[in-house]
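Deliverable D5.2: sample structural annotation.
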Amino acid sequence: MSKRKSAKYKLDRRMGENIWGRPKSSVNRRSYGPGQHGQRRKSKVSDFGLQLRAKQKLKGYYGDVTEKQFKRTYQEASKMKGDTGQNLIGLLEQRLDMVVYRAKFAPTVFSARQIVSHGHIRVNGVKCNIASRRVKVGDVISLGNKAKEMTLIIEAQALPEREVPDYVAQDGADKVTFVRVPTLDEVPYPVKMEPNLVVEFYSR
């Protein structure tokens, strides 16, 4: 697992959007970018710039995964049948840390990754500490005994700003089943994601 080197809300300010829909985001106070030149007038963005921005936003949303890992996921999506953009979203949503986040076992994508890496998550009853593990349809993801009493997880489950999506079926407070691979329209993004531009970026 790579270590995140920059503040997570810096991405919000750079994009001018509340990427994760969190109340603490600095964009809720000011929408311009970070630094002394953040308020300068924005120039017209090229097609490449739009594609790069779409890629950075999507990559950042999923916990700022490494470029190598993200590109490998895109390459896998491009080899699958159907729309590459939809396939990319489906593969990203199948990451174990994302299923943990969607299940509201963690308040942020970053804390979901940490909970997994610390061994607090079970997949079909077996402990797994690999955040990037691909969850399959029908897999049951549950909390370990210690995790059930963790304040972080209890508070996350009470968060009002997001709901558990339909493709993650709840079974009590500590267990969910991954029902199906979602389409782009089903994923509850707080902001608009454009995987088609990401496909264009890597197809250059």
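Annotation notes: The helical segments are 8-15, 47-61, 67-79, 84-93, 96-102, 109-117, 151-157, 195-202. Confidence is low (pLDDT under 50) at residues 1-6.
The annotation will be released with the project's public dataset once the embargo ends.
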